[in-house]
Amino acid sequence: MAASEIEQWWIDKFQENLGPIRKVAGWTTQQLADELGVARQTVSNLETGKSPMTKLQYLALRTVFSAEIARREDRDLARIIKTLVDDPIEQRIRERRAQEQDGEAVADNAPVNTDGGNVADNAATEQRKPSAATLKASKTAATGKPTLSTAMQALAVITGALASGTAAGIITYLMFPDGGPNKR
Q1: Which of 32, 103, 106, 180 is most buried, taking the most CB atoms under 10 A from its CB?
Q2: Around Cβ 49, how many Cβ atoms within 10 Å?
Q3: In a 3-state reduction of DSSP, which class is residue 139?
């Protein structure tokens, strides 16, 4: 299991849930597009699956939502992202690792379906996955284990911390040391 494969799972799951996450944040498609600095149609195409989400778009979206969570101290939005995106992916990773430890042969592109959906529905997602050579090349030389990019790791940790509420005050203070965005 390579880091790029895991990152793609996160990107795909986030794209699958972008509409509900945006709605929980209380934003229109246009408002989210304005936050990202893109056209409304770009957000619409991501939500409907007409365009595949790139890693850069994923990181931008996670950053925008994390900033909004911290700004509003919105634990509900953080919990929604954790419940709809992070928890299912973490479960999928645990299941895949258990399969690998049990000695089961797991094909590089064999889907692990944890969301109860039809695997055939994810055909377009599966086609975007990198080749076996790319996946193997992304493993670290020292351990042979995949490592997620620092940005992907940080965003997952931040969302988890914000969902629990333990870091919301600290992050809000760091982002808005003068008391908030409206007190300038």
Answers
A1: 32
A2: 14
A3: strand
Closest CA relative to residue 21, chosen from 90, 13, 167: 13
Structure tokens at 180: 């908030």
Distance CA 48, CA 120 (A): 17
Q: What angle do CA 90, 91, 94 make, to 5 degrees?
A: 90
Percentage helix, strand, coil for the chain under 3-state DSSP, each rounded to 5: 65, 0, 35
**Mean pLDDT of each 10-residue bin along the chain, 184 residues long:** 86 96 96 95 97 95 94 92 94 91 63 45 41 41 53 65 56 55 48
Of 1, 6, 2, the C-alpha closest to 153 is 6
At a CB cut-off of 8 Å and minimum separation 6, what does 51 contact? 42, 45
Which amino acid would we find at residue 182? Answer: N
Radius of gyration of the chain from Cα atoms?
A: 18
Q: What Å distances lie between residue 93 and 22, 134, 177, CA to CA?
A: 25, 19, 37
